[in-house]
Design a protein that fits this description.
Blueprint (H helix, E strand, L loop, with lengths): L5 E5 L5 H9 L4 E7 L4 H17 L4 E3 L4 H9 L2 E7 L10 H8 L2 E5 L22 H13 L2 E3 L5 H10 L5 E2 L16 H9 L3 E4 L14 H15 L4 E3 L10 H8 L31 H10 L4 H19 L4
Parallel strand pairs: 1-2, 2-4, 3-4, 4-5, 5-6, 7-8, 8-9
Length: 326
């Protein structure tokens, strides 16, 4: 069995077209966002929508909950779909819901989405106070049940606190190093060294605001950045979390950035004069373009084994270590 192709973060406007493109690109597994600012009941409605898609397109996709589902996807020519939250809002203020959402099939949860949460500080806040009391308790509970901690939108101290406090490796599913491009969402060398030294995983983002050069970033620049990261942190700790938001209307940016917490639109990493989703680089417009990244990694000097690890083998190992109870 060859190594799988895993994209560890997408938020596409899901449709039969996108599901067929996943298969055309031979994507074996994806981690999909099912909550940004939703409460528990609203999140359950999103799970219901996914159940309808699984019913409608059983030859293309199925729900994944364990690492073995990735192999099952390869064996059956389908894509395993793993659920995650970009915000802890679905657990509200109830630590008991951590286990419930895991039982519902959720496998990743961010502790913050840009703002301060009940658990930690987001990367857009002026002051970072680190993990809160509830945050420490929720981290321990996530460790216990096998719900992966994701710090992609979290601030520096909060991320370092979480890496130190967690008894299991955590993930930053979709971000890039800030030494390559200094976006608020990208991560410092200190964070990435702490993350990977503790066995955690970084998924490189293809969202243009996270790329040096934005939409004009070249494939070679992106893959050379990965090569430099591999030299610093080890290729075995790296993968892809594309943050692909294919076919989403620009109005979704307002929901992502603002939710219900503000009456004014927060354009975040975008420009207030040009809100909406920026164009993807021409070498990664949708899931059919994964062969371009494979070629780019090989051109950047990665071996076949390293390339297969970066494109999914490393995430598969992390899934196997992370999704079950401690």
């Amino acid at each position: 069995m060859t190594a799988p192709l895993i994209d560890n973060l997408q938020y596409a406007n899901w449709s039969e077209k996108v599901f067929r493109q996943l298969r055309a690109g031979r994507v074996d597994a994806i981690h999909v966002t099912i909550a940004y600012h939703e409460g528990f009941r609203e999140m359950v409605l999103n799970l219901e929508a996914w159940n309808r898609w699984f019913e409608r397109y059983p030859s293309l996709i199925f729900k994944g909950t364990e690492a073995a589902d990735v192999t099952r996807a390869q064996d059956t020519g389908r894509t395993a779909v793993f659920f995650g939250f970009q915000n802890p809002s679905p657990i509200e203020d109830d630590i008991g819901l951590v286990e419930i959402v895991h039982q519902l099939g959720v496998r990743f949860m961010q502790l913050t989405y840009n703002n301060q949460s009940l658990l930690a500080t987001g990367c857009y806040e002026d002051e970072d106070t680190g993990l809160t009391r509830m945050g420490r308790a929720v981290v321990a509970e996530m460790n216990r049940v096998g719900l992966v901690i994701d710090m992609s939108h979290s601030a520096e101290r909060s991320t370092l606190d979480t890496i130190e406090h967690s008894t299991r490796p955590i993930a930053i599913t979709h971000a890039n190093p800030d030494w390559w491009h200094p976006a608020l969402r990208n991560k410092s060398d200190q964070v990435l060294r702490s993350l990977t030294n503790a066995g955690g995983m970084l998924g490189f983002s293809l969202y243009p605001h996270h790329l040096a050069g934005g939409s004009q970033c070249t494939l070679s620049d992106f893959c050379e950045m990965i090569a430099e990261a591999a030299s610093r942190y080890g290729a075995e700790n790296l993968g892809i979390g594309s943050d692909l938001c294919q076919d989403q209307p620009d109005s979704i940016v307002e929901w992502m950035r603002t939710g219900r917490w503000s009456k004014e639109v927060d354009y975040g990493e975008g420009s207030a004069s040009a809100p909406g989703f920026p164009p993807m680089p021409d070498w990664f417009r949708d899931n059919r373009d994964w062969p371009n990244i494979r070629d780019g990694l090989r051109d950047a000097g990665f071996s076949r084994d390293e390339t297969e690890g970066l494109l999914g083998g490393n995430w598969l190992r992390f899934y196997a270590q992370s999704f079950g109870p401690a």
